[in-house]
Amino acid sequence: MGNPNRCSVIIVGAGISGISAAKVLTENGVDDVVILEATDRIGGRIRKEEFGGVTVELGAGWIAGVGGKQSNPVWELAHQSNLRTILSDYSNARYNIYDHSGKIFPSGIAADSYKKAVDSAIQKLRNQESNVVDDDDEDDDDSILSETTPTQKTPIELAIDFVLHDFEMAEVEPISTYVDFGEREYLVADERGYEYLLYKMAESFLDTSEGKILDSRLQLNKVVGEIQQSRNGVLVKTEDGCFYEANYVILSASIGVLQSQLISFLPPLPRWKTEAILNCEVMVYTKIFLKFPYKFWPCGPDKEFFIYAYHRRGYYTFWQHMENAYPGCDILVVTLTNEESKRIEAQTDEETMKEAMEVLRNMFGPEIPDAIDILVPRWWNNPFQRGSYTNYPIYVNQQLLRNIKAPVERIFFTGEHTSEKFSGYVHGGYLSGIETSKALLEEIRKENERKTEGQAFLIEKKLNILLYNTVVI
Ligand SMILES: Cc1cc2nc3c(=O)[nH]c(=O)nc-3n(C[C@H](O)[C@H](O)[C@H](O)COP(=O)(O)OP(=O)(O)OC[C@H]3O[C@@H](n4cnc5c(N)ncnc54)[C@H](O)[C@@H]3O)c2cc1C
């Protein structure tokens, strides 16, 4: 106390959860907040980049969960901002499965394999459900959802397994996003990028001019390295040697960052918290963009997604052409996950391009042109991300979730990983920010109440002493 630079709340991270948390606080009268963001921009895992003449999304690309009974709040934000979006129909992918020699699997075989894979995944889930011991004191068996040994499956089965589990799981699992908000997914295809939603949100409570945020409450290039807390407040240190004091902290860094120990805590976080953080599985999801001099792949909406069936699971399996999003852009996207993502992050982009070209030549023949550009995001090696999103198993240990989310004294945790229903999604991040700030506002209210009661008690005590002295005199 006493420091004029002390603010009410420091928010670490300016991704969607940090920005939505700050917005709720300022709307509720707590406007002396400071947002410390490690990078030179807001948005976090919502990030656009210019590539091949268009805007591509390196992180979140879709608004998932649209068309249901309830409205997805991110879909509403997109509407308010007039964001350009394109409906994605993944279901056509199953009819565009290529084998190693470039033949498309006949639709009957593909449909049968698909049905078999879905049925077997559902069966595994049922087994898992019946194995789950209620209330969480047993370790999670998330191995049930992991793939079986590759050798047991044919290339088409491996490819479908990959698509179902690493990409699109709605047909297997009752995912809250689809149950609550609907099953449609819209690809953001807007030159302003998905991140435009964040700027619009920030604009409503931070000072801006000509599309730039010029408010000292947002501090960019501030890498938080240490958070100290005492009974009375928090002290946050950034790597450039600055100190910030506040009554509370909202920490929105991803679970991968929390696992990485980029931020140290004094006193250290309690064991229940560190264990929960370490037990959380982080998914790496990488979209590789390839630009070509001209297109050589089949076009049309029902050809947007295609699959490469290969004996190595997840090896350049899932492809998308970007003609529906940006006609004439001549860009393909291939999605890799987890170990394959980590592998390609560790090699040069030229090596990755070579591998991708070999796969494309297997599918479309030796005559196709070389790609003229490649873009490989590195979410795993990004020290401020360390992965793409959390991957809670469907029958998640509820105590784990509660512990991930629970505050530790004056440090409140937010971000997609703290969302019980929508972890892994943009709307999960958005809603978690709102929820965390509401919980913090309640805590502030209680603290104020305690202070007022304490002060009233002191005044009463002083009055009693005064009265006693007067009577004695
Ligand atoms: C490749 C990829 C594809 C995805 N696809 C989709 C999709 O299609 N649809 C969908 O809904 N979701 C998707 N997601 C998930 C979605 O992007 C995230 O769930 C959401 O953006 C997370 O927001 P957040 O605020 O929780 O975290 P973040 O966006 O990570 O924000 C946290 C912020 O904290 C900052 N930070 C970290 N450490 C520090 C520190 N020490 N000091 C200061 N600042 C720090 C980071 O720089 C970051 O800006 C995808 C994610 C990725 C990576």
From TrEMBL:
FAD binds at residues 17, 37-38, 224. PANTHER family: FLAVIN MONOAMINE OXIDASE, POLYAMINE OXIDASE 1. One of its GO terms (molecular function) is polyamine oxidase activity. Belongs to the flavin monoamine oxidase family. Keywords: FAD, Flavoprotein, Oxidoreductase. It comes from Abeliophyllum distichum. InterPro entries: Amino_oxidase, FAD/NAD-bd_sf, Flavin_amine_oxidase, Flavin_monoamine_oxidase. Residues 16-441 form the Amine oxidase domain. Pathway: Amine and polyamine degradation; spermine degradation. Residues 127-150 are annotated as: Disordered. The keyword Oxidoreductase applies. The lineage of its organism: Eukaryota, Viridiplantae, Streptophyta, Embryophyta, Tracheophyta. GO terms for biological process: polyamine catabolic process. This is Polyamine oxidase 1. SUPFAM superfamilies: FAD-linked reductases, C-terminal domain (SSF54373), FAD/NAD(P)-binding domain (SSF51905). Residues 132-144 have a biased composition (Acidic residues). Its cofactor is FAD. Transmembrane segments: none annotated.
